[in-house]
Design goal:
The chain is an alpha/beta fold. 41% of the residues lie in helices and 17% in strands. The protein has a domain of 255 residues: Rossmann fold. It binds pyridoxal-5'-phosphate (PLP).
Length: 439
Protein backbone atom coordinates (compact mmCIF):
# COMPACT_ATOMS: atom_id res chain seq x y z
CA UNK A 1 0.00 0.00 0.00
CA UNK A 2 1.32 3.44 -0.80
CA UNK A 3 1.99 5.77 2.09
CA UNK A 4 -0.65 8.27 3.21
CA UNK A 5 -0.03 11.83 2.04
CA UNK A 6 -2.77 13.76 3.85
CA UNK A 7 -3.24 13.97 7.59
CA UNK A 8 -6.69 15.42 8.10
CA UNK A 9 -8.56 16.31 11.26
CA UNK A 10 -12.31 15.98 11.56
CA UNK A 11 -14.39 19.16 11.91
CA UNK A 12 -14.94 18.46 15.61
CA UNK A 13 -11.17 18.24 16.16
CA UNK A 14 -10.72 21.95 15.38
CA UNK A 15 -9.14 23.66 18.41
CA UNK A 16 -11.70 25.16 20.81
CA UNK A 17 -9.15 27.50 22.44
CA UNK A 18 -6.29 29.69 21.29
CA UNK A 19 -2.94 29.06 22.97
CA UNK A 20 -1.16 32.02 24.58
CA UNK A 21 2.63 31.69 24.89
CA UNK A 22 2.69 34.73 27.21
CA UNK A 23 1.60 32.31 29.95
CA UNK A 24 4.72 30.15 29.50
CA UNK A 25 7.61 32.53 28.79
CA UNK A 26 10.41 31.85 31.32
CA UNK A 27 11.05 35.64 31.36
CA UNK A 28 8.24 38.19 30.96
CA UNK A 29 7.86 40.08 27.70
CA UNK A 30 8.84 43.78 28.05
CA UNK A 31 5.60 45.82 27.85
CA UNK A 32 4.74 48.30 25.08
CA UNK A 33 5.44 51.93 26.08
CA UNK A 34 3.43 55.11 25.57
CA UNK A 35 5.17 57.11 22.78
CA UNK A 36 5.03 60.33 24.85
CA UNK A 37 5.52 59.37 28.50
CA UNK A 38 7.56 56.18 27.85
CA UNK A 39 5.49 54.52 30.60
CA UNK A 40 3.87 51.10 29.96
CA UNK A 41 0.68 51.65 27.96
CA UNK A 42 -2.61 51.38 29.82
CA UNK A 43 -5.61 49.53 28.38
CA UNK A 44 -7.61 52.78 27.99
CA UNK A 45 -5.02 54.11 25.53
CA UNK A 46 -5.51 51.03 23.39
CA UNK A 47 -9.32 50.98 23.51
CA UNK A 48 -9.29 54.11 21.29
CA UNK A 49 -7.99 51.79 18.56
CA UNK A 50 -9.25 48.29 19.43
CA UNK A 51 -12.35 46.79 21.06
CA UNK A 52 -11.94 45.83 24.72
CA UNK A 53 -11.92 42.08 24.10
CA UNK A 54 -8.87 42.41 21.82
CA UNK A 55 -7.10 44.76 24.25
CA UNK A 56 -7.70 42.19 26.99
CA UNK A 57 -6.24 39.44 24.78
CA UNK A 58 -3.26 41.66 23.91
CA UNK A 59 -2.36 41.86 27.62
CA UNK A 60 -3.68 38.50 28.82
CA UNK A 61 -1.53 36.05 30.73
CA UNK A 62 -4.15 33.31 30.43
CA UNK A 63 -2.78 30.18 28.77
CA UNK A 64 -5.92 29.09 26.90
CA UNK A 65 -8.57 31.50 25.61
CA UNK A 66 -11.82 30.12 24.29
CA UNK A 67 -12.58 30.68 20.61
CA UNK A 68 -16.15 32.05 20.40
CA UNK A 69 -18.68 29.74 18.74
CA UNK A 70 -19.41 32.40 16.06
CA UNK A 71 -15.70 32.51 15.13
CA UNK A 72 -15.41 28.72 15.00
CA UNK A 73 -18.44 28.65 12.70
CA UNK A 74 -16.55 30.83 10.20
CA UNK A 75 -13.25 28.97 10.71
CA UNK A 76 -15.25 25.87 9.73
CA UNK A 77 -15.36 27.17 6.13
CA UNK A 78 -11.73 26.06 5.79
CA UNK A 79 -10.47 24.65 9.12
CA UNK A 80 -9.00 22.29 10.16
CA UNK A 81 -6.48 22.83 7.34
CA UNK A 82 -4.54 19.88 5.92
CA UNK A 83 -1.06 18.71 6.83
CA UNK A 84 0.58 16.86 3.96
CA UNK A 85 3.65 14.72 3.46
CA UNK A 86 5.79 16.14 0.63
CA UNK A 87 6.71 12.66 -0.61
CA UNK A 88 7.28 13.76 -4.20
CA UNK A 89 9.56 16.59 -3.10
CA UNK A 90 11.49 14.11 -0.92
CA UNK A 91 11.90 11.88 -3.96
CA UNK A 92 13.02 14.75 -6.20
CA UNK A 93 15.62 15.71 -3.58
CA UNK A 94 16.61 12.06 -3.01
CA UNK A 95 16.63 12.80 0.68
CA UNK A 96 16.16 10.43 3.61
CA UNK A 97 14.40 13.32 5.37
CA UNK A 98 10.64 13.21 5.86
CA UNK A 99 9.10 16.53 4.85
CA UNK A 100 5.62 17.68 5.94
CA UNK A 101 3.81 20.94 5.24
CA UNK A 102 0.92 22.59 7.02
CA UNK A 103 -1.14 24.29 4.32
CA UNK A 104 -2.99 27.52 5.15
CA UNK A 105 -3.61 28.36 1.49
CA UNK A 106 -7.02 26.65 1.58
CA UNK A 107 -8.63 29.66 3.30
CA UNK A 108 -10.92 31.95 1.23
CA UNK A 109 -8.20 34.61 0.93
CA UNK A 110 -5.51 32.00 0.22
CA UNK A 111 -3.39 32.53 3.34
CA UNK A 112 -3.32 32.18 7.14
CA UNK A 113 -4.50 35.79 7.61
CA UNK A 114 -8.25 35.05 7.94
CA UNK A 115 -7.38 33.19 11.19
CA UNK A 116 -7.09 36.59 12.87
CA UNK A 117 -9.24 38.71 10.52
CA UNK A 118 -12.32 36.67 11.48
CA UNK A 119 -12.04 37.08 15.28
CA UNK A 120 -11.00 40.73 14.91
CA UNK A 121 -14.12 41.49 12.85
CA UNK A 122 -16.26 39.46 15.27
CA UNK A 123 -15.06 41.22 18.44
CA UNK A 124 -15.52 44.60 16.74
CA UNK A 125 -19.01 43.69 15.62
CA UNK A 126 -20.20 42.70 19.09
CA UNK A 127 -18.60 45.86 20.57
CA UNK A 128 -20.70 48.04 18.23
CA UNK A 129 -17.96 49.07 15.77
CA UNK A 130 -19.42 50.07 12.38
CA UNK A 131 -16.26 50.41 10.31
CA UNK A 132 -12.68 49.08 10.34
CA UNK A 133 -9.63 50.88 8.96
CA UNK A 134 -6.46 49.03 8.08
CA UNK A 135 -3.40 48.99 5.84
CA UNK A 136 -2.20 46.35 3.45
CA UNK A 137 1.04 45.80 1.56
CA UNK A 138 0.62 43.35 -1.27
CA UNK A 139 -3.03 42.88 -0.33
CA UNK A 140 -3.23 39.55 1.51
CA UNK A 141 -4.19 41.20 4.78
CA UNK A 142 -6.61 43.61 3.12
CA UNK A 143 -8.41 40.81 1.31
CA UNK A 144 -8.61 38.72 4.51
CA UNK A 145 -10.08 41.59 6.53
CA UNK A 146 -12.42 42.55 3.67
CA UNK A 147 -13.73 38.97 3.69
CA UNK A 148 -14.16 38.94 7.49
CA UNK A 149 -15.95 42.32 7.42
CA UNK A 150 -18.34 41.05 4.77
CA UNK A 151 -19.16 38.05 6.99
CA UNK A 152 -19.97 40.23 10.02
CA UNK A 153 -21.48 43.22 8.19
CA UNK A 154 -18.79 45.85 8.87
CA UNK A 155 -17.53 48.55 6.50
CA UNK A 156 -13.86 48.11 5.61
CA UNK A 157 -11.56 50.99 4.61
CA UNK A 158 -8.13 49.91 3.39
CA UNK A 159 -4.91 51.85 2.74
CA UNK A 160 -2.91 49.84 0.23
CA UNK A 161 0.78 50.63 -0.40
CA UNK A 162 0.72 52.53 -3.69
CA UNK A 163 3.27 50.47 -5.59
CA UNK A 164 1.22 47.31 -4.92
CA UNK A 165 -2.08 49.06 -5.66
CA UNK A 166 -0.84 49.64 -9.20
CA UNK A 167 1.28 46.50 -9.68
CA UNK A 168 -1.13 43.98 -8.06
CA UNK A 169 -4.61 44.82 -9.33
CA UNK A 170 -6.04 41.36 -8.58
CA UNK A 171 -5.83 41.63 -4.81
CA UNK A 172 -7.35 45.10 -4.96
CA UNK A 173 -10.19 43.60 -6.99
CA UNK A 174 -10.58 40.79 -4.47
CA UNK A 175 -10.95 43.36 -1.66
CA UNK A 176 -13.50 45.29 -3.70
CA UNK A 177 -15.36 42.08 -4.50
CA UNK A 178 -15.71 41.48 -0.75
CA UNK A 179 -17.11 45.02 -0.49
CA UNK A 180 -14.14 47.00 0.87
CA UNK A 181 -13.04 50.52 -0.10
CA UNK A 182 -9.38 50.64 -1.15
CA UNK A 183 -7.12 53.74 -1.28
CA UNK A 184 -3.60 53.90 -2.74
CA UNK A 185 -1.30 55.05 0.10
CA UNK A 186 -0.02 57.75 0.47
CA UNK A 187 -3.58 58.98 -0.18
CA UNK A 188 -5.40 62.31 -0.04
CA UNK A 189 -7.71 60.89 2.66
CA UNK A 190 -5.47 61.79 5.62
CA UNK A 191 -3.30 64.73 6.69
CA UNK A 192 -0.28 62.43 6.96
CA UNK A 193 -0.85 61.03 3.45
CA UNK A 194 -1.17 64.55 2.04
CA UNK A 195 2.05 65.57 3.78
CA UNK A 196 3.99 62.62 2.36
CA UNK A 197 2.64 63.43 -1.11
CA UNK A 198 3.61 67.08 -0.78
CA UNK A 199 7.14 66.12 0.30
CA UNK A 200 7.52 63.47 -2.42
CA UNK A 201 4.91 63.47 -5.20
CA UNK A 202 6.42 60.22 -6.53
CA UNK A 203 6.27 58.31 -3.23
CA UNK A 204 5.56 54.60 -3.80
CA UNK A 205 4.38 54.31 -0.22
CA UNK A 206 5.38 51.82 2.45
CA UNK A 207 3.68 49.72 5.08
CA UNK A 208 4.82 52.18 7.77
CA UNK A 209 3.13 55.08 5.93
CA UNK A 210 -0.05 53.09 5.29
CA UNK A 211 -0.28 52.14 8.99
CA UNK A 212 0.00 55.84 9.92
CA UNK A 213 -2.84 56.66 7.50
CA UNK A 214 -5.10 53.89 8.83
CA UNK A 215 -4.51 55.02 12.43
CA UNK A 216 -5.30 58.64 11.53
CA UNK A 217 -8.44 57.49 9.71
CA UNK A 218 -9.50 55.60 12.85
CA UNK A 219 -9.12 58.50 15.28
CA UNK A 220 -10.85 60.96 12.93
CA UNK A 221 -13.93 58.82 12.09
CA UNK A 222 -16.53 57.98 14.76
CA UNK A 223 -17.57 54.32 14.95
CA UNK A 224 -14.25 53.28 13.40
CA UNK A 225 -11.60 50.99 14.91
CA UNK A 226 -8.21 49.96 13.65
CA UNK A 227 -7.16 46.45 12.72
CA UNK A 228 -3.64 45.03 12.32
CA UNK A 229 -2.86 41.76 10.56
CA UNK A 230 0.42 40.82 12.25
CA UNK A 231 2.98 41.76 14.94
CA UNK A 232 0.62 42.20 17.94
CA UNK A 233 0.19 39.61 20.69
CA UNK A 234 -3.50 39.03 19.97
CA UNK A 235 -2.70 38.28 16.32
CA UNK A 236 -0.08 35.69 17.33
CA UNK A 237 -2.68 34.27 19.72
CA UNK A 238 -5.33 33.83 17.00
CA UNK A 239 -2.83 32.14 14.69
CA UNK A 240 -2.10 29.45 17.30
CA UNK A 241 -4.75 27.23 15.71
CA UNK A 242 -2.09 26.40 13.06
CA UNK A 243 0.41 24.87 15.48
CA UNK A 244 -2.18 23.17 17.65
CA UNK A 245 -3.62 21.37 14.64
CA UNK A 246 -0.11 20.54 13.38
CA UNK A 247 0.80 18.84 16.67
CA UNK A 248 -2.24 16.55 16.40
CA UNK A 249 -1.60 15.90 12.72
CA UNK A 250 2.03 14.95 13.32
CA UNK A 251 0.73 12.50 15.93
CA UNK A 252 -1.54 11.03 13.21
CA UNK A 253 1.52 10.75 10.98
CA UNK A 254 3.30 9.01 13.87
CA UNK A 255 6.33 11.30 13.80
CA UNK A 256 7.94 14.01 15.92
CA UNK A 257 9.42 16.99 14.08
CA UNK A 258 13.16 17.62 14.34
CA UNK A 259 13.08 20.96 12.53
CA UNK A 260 10.23 23.40 11.89
CA UNK A 261 10.53 26.21 9.33
CA UNK A 262 8.18 29.17 8.98
CA UNK A 263 8.56 32.41 7.06
CA UNK A 264 8.53 35.62 9.06
CA UNK A 265 7.40 39.10 8.00
CA UNK A 266 5.65 40.61 11.01
CA UNK A 267 5.87 37.15 12.55
CA UNK A 268 2.26 35.99 12.84
CA UNK A 269 2.12 32.80 10.74
CA UNK A 270 5.46 31.76 12.18
CA UNK A 271 4.16 32.41 15.70
CA UNK A 272 0.97 30.49 14.96
CA UNK A 273 2.84 27.40 13.83
CA UNK A 274 5.74 27.66 16.25
CA UNK A 275 4.31 28.72 19.62
CA UNK A 276 2.46 25.49 20.49
CA UNK A 277 5.73 23.65 19.74
CA UNK A 278 7.69 26.27 21.74
CA UNK A 279 5.42 25.48 24.69
CA UNK A 280 6.53 21.84 24.47
CA UNK A 281 10.16 22.94 24.43
CA UNK A 282 9.59 24.98 27.60
CA UNK A 283 7.34 22.59 29.50
CA UNK A 284 8.36 19.14 28.24
CA UNK A 285 12.00 19.71 27.33
CA UNK A 286 11.46 18.86 23.65
CA UNK A 287 14.44 19.58 21.44
CA UNK A 288 12.83 20.82 18.22
CA UNK A 289 14.80 23.33 16.15
CA UNK A 290 12.32 26.07 15.23
CA UNK A 291 13.54 28.43 12.53
CA UNK A 292 12.10 31.74 11.30
CA UNK A 293 13.09 32.49 7.70
CA UNK A 294 13.11 36.07 6.41
CA UNK A 295 14.33 37.86 3.25
CA UNK A 296 17.96 39.07 3.20
CA UNK A 297 16.61 42.41 1.92
CA UNK A 298 14.42 42.98 5.01
CA UNK A 299 16.34 41.12 7.72
CA UNK A 300 14.85 42.34 11.00
CA UNK A 301 15.61 39.16 13.01
CA UNK A 302 19.06 38.42 11.60
CA UNK A 303 20.38 42.00 11.19
CA UNK A 304 18.03 44.27 13.14
CA UNK A 305 18.55 45.48 16.69
CA UNK A 306 16.42 44.31 19.62
CA UNK A 307 15.15 47.60 21.08
CA UNK A 308 12.05 49.73 21.56
CA UNK A 309 10.78 51.14 18.26
CA UNK A 310 7.61 52.49 16.67
CA UNK A 311 5.38 50.29 14.54
CA UNK A 312 4.77 53.04 11.97
CA UNK A 313 6.53 55.86 10.12
CA UNK A 314 4.60 58.76 11.71
CA UNK A 315 5.55 57.57 15.25
CA UNK A 316 1.93 57.21 16.41
CA UNK A 317 1.96 53.62 17.72
CA UNK A 318 3.18 52.57 21.15
CA UNK A 319 6.87 51.68 21.33
CA UNK A 320 7.39 47.93 21.14
CA UNK A 321 10.44 45.91 22.23
CA UNK A 322 11.25 44.13 19.00
CA UNK A 323 13.87 43.28 16.43
CA UNK A 324 13.79 46.26 14.11
CA UNK A 325 15.57 47.83 11.15
CA UNK A 326 14.26 51.24 12.28
CA UNK A 327 10.78 52.64 11.64
CA UNK A 328 12.00 54.77 8.72
CA UNK A 329 13.55 51.76 6.94
CA UNK A 330 12.39 51.48 3.32
CA UNK A 331 12.77 47.87 2.17
CA UNK A 332 13.50 47.24 -1.52
CA UNK A 333 10.43 46.14 -3.49
CA UNK A 334 10.92 42.37 -3.44
CA UNK A 335 8.07 40.13 -4.58
CA UNK A 336 7.41 38.67 -1.12
CA UNK A 337 5.39 41.78 -0.25
CA UNK A 338 4.17 40.27 3.02
CA UNK A 339 7.72 40.13 4.36
CA UNK A 340 8.52 43.84 3.89
CA UNK A 341 8.05 45.18 7.41
CA UNK A 342 10.76 46.93 9.42
CA UNK A 343 9.95 45.20 12.71
CA UNK A 344 9.14 41.75 14.10
CA UNK A 345 6.44 40.67 16.52
CA UNK A 346 7.66 41.34 20.10
CA UNK A 347 6.72 37.75 21.07
CA UNK A 348 8.79 36.29 18.20
CA UNK A 349 11.67 38.67 19.01
CA UNK A 350 11.50 37.54 22.66
CA UNK A 351 11.65 33.86 21.61
CA UNK A 352 14.82 34.56 19.67
CA UNK A 353 16.37 36.38 22.64
CA UNK A 354 15.55 33.43 24.92
CA UNK A 355 17.09 30.94 22.48
CA UNK A 356 13.76 29.18 21.88
CA UNK A 357 13.92 29.77 18.12
CA UNK A 358 16.55 30.52 15.47
CA UNK A 359 16.50 32.84 12.46
CA UNK A 360 17.87 32.66 8.91
CA UNK A 361 17.70 34.97 5.89
CA UNK A 362 17.33 33.95 2.24
CA UNK A 363 17.81 35.97 -0.97
CA UNK A 364 14.95 36.29 -3.45
CA UNK A 365 16.39 34.22 -6.31
CA UNK A 366 17.07 31.20 -4.13
CA UNK A 367 13.55 31.50 -2.73
CA UNK A 368 11.95 31.38 -6.18
CA UNK A 369 14.16 28.49 -7.27
CA UNK A 370 12.81 26.57 -4.27
CA UNK A 371 9.24 27.72 -4.96
CA UNK A 372 9.34 26.38 -8.52
CA UNK A 373 10.89 23.11 -7.36
CA UNK A 374 8.13 22.74 -4.77
CA UNK A 375 5.39 23.56 -7.32
CA UNK A 376 6.71 21.01 -9.80
CA UNK A 377 6.90 18.26 -7.17
CA UNK A 378 3.79 18.96 -5.05
CA UNK A 379 1.50 20.86 -7.43
CA UNK A 380 0.79 23.76 -5.09
CA UNK A 381 2.19 27.10 -6.27
CA UNK A 382 3.42 28.54 -2.96
CA UNK A 383 3.18 32.21 -1.97
CA UNK A 384 6.55 33.98 -2.37
CA UNK A 385 6.50 34.60 1.39
CA UNK A 386 5.98 30.93 2.27
CA UNK A 387 8.71 29.96 -0.19
CA UNK A 388 11.32 31.34 2.21
CA UNK A 389 10.46 28.47 4.56
CA UNK A 390 10.49 26.03 1.64
CA UNK A 391 13.99 27.15 0.57
CA UNK A 392 15.36 26.60 4.06
CA UNK A 393 13.61 23.21 4.33
CA UNK A 394 15.02 22.07 0.98
CA UNK A 395 18.54 23.02 2.09
CA UNK A 396 18.00 21.05 5.31
CA UNK A 397 16.75 18.03 3.36
CA UNK A 398 19.76 18.17 1.03
CA UNK A 399 22.03 18.29 4.08
CA UNK A 400 20.29 15.14 5.35
CA UNK A 401 21.16 13.47 2.05
CA UNK A 402 24.84 14.41 2.17
CA UNK A 403 25.10 13.46 5.85
CA UNK A 404 23.04 10.29 5.36
CA UNK A 405 20.71 11.25 8.25
CA UNK A 406 16.94 11.06 8.49
CA UNK A 407 15.26 14.11 9.95
CA UNK A 408 11.60 15.06 10.19
CA UNK A 409 11.01 18.52 8.74
CA UNK A 410 7.80 20.57 9.04
CA UNK A 411 7.17 23.57 6.79
CA UNK A 412 4.60 26.28 7.47
CA UNK A 413 3.05 26.82 4.03
CA UNK A 414 1.32 30.08 4.89
CA UNK A 415 -0.40 30.64 1.57
CA UNK A 416 -0.69 29.94 -2.13
CA UNK A 417 0.80 32.08 -4.86
CA UNK A 418 -2.00 32.03 -7.42
CA UNK A 419 -2.37 35.81 -7.23
CA UNK A 420 1.42 36.20 -7.32
CA UNK A 421 2.00 34.72 -10.76
CA UNK A 422 3.46 38.03 -12.00
CA UNK A 423 6.32 37.40 -9.56
CA UNK A 424 6.79 33.92 -11.05
CA UNK A 425 6.76 35.54 -14.50
CA UNK A 426 9.59 37.81 -13.39
CA UNK A 427 11.59 34.80 -12.16
CA UNK A 428 10.85 32.50 -15.08
CA UNK A 429 11.59 35.16 -17.70
CA UNK A 430 14.96 35.96 -16.12
CA UNK A 431 14.13 39.51 -15.03
CA UNK A 432 14.40 38.96 -11.30
CA UNK A 433 17.32 40.15 -9.15
CA UNK A 434 18.28 39.35 -5.59
CA UNK A 435 17.45 42.86 -4.38
CA UNK A 436 15.53 45.81 -5.69
CA UNK A 437 13.25 46.12 -8.65
CA UNK A 438 13.03 43.90 -11.69
CA UNK A 439 14.63 45.02 -14.95
C1 LIG B 1 1.24 38.25 5.07
C2 LIG B 1 1.86 36.96 4.77
C3 LIG B 1 3.04 36.53 5.41
C4 LIG B 1 3.81 37.39 6.36
O1 LIG B 1 3.15 37.80 7.50
P1 LIG B 1 3.44 37.18 8.94
O2 LIG B 1 2.72 38.03 9.87
O3 LIG B 1 4.94 37.21 9.13
O4 LIG B 1 2.94 35.79 8.90
C5 LIG B 1 3.51 35.27 5.13
N1 LIG B 1 2.90 34.47 4.24
C6 LIG B 1 1.78 34.85 3.60
C7 LIG B 1 1.16 33.91 2.62
C8 LIG B 1 1.23 36.10 3.83
O5 LIG B 1 0.11 36.46 3.20
Amino acid sequence: MSQPLQFLLRAEEMPTHWYNLLADFPEPLPPPLHPGTKEPVTPDLMTAMFPEALVAQEMSGERHIEIPREVRDVYALYRPTPLLRAARLEKALQTPAHIYYKYEGVSPAGSHKPNTAIPQAYYNKIAGTKRLATETGAGQWGSSLAFACSVFGLECNIYMVKVSFHQKPYRKLLMQTYGATVHASPSDQTAFGRKVRADDPNSHGSLGIAISEAIEDTVTHPGTKYSLGSVLNHVCLHQSVIGQESIRQMELAGEEPDVIFGCAGGGSNFAGLAFPFVQRKIREGKKYRIVAVEPTSCPSLTQGELRYDFGDTAETTPLMMMHTLGHTFMPPSIHAGGLRYHGMAPMVSHCLKLGLIEAMAYPQMRVFEAAVQFARAEGIVPAPESSHAIAAAIDEAVKCRTEGRKRVIVIGLSGNGLLDLAAYDSYLSGHMHDTGNDD
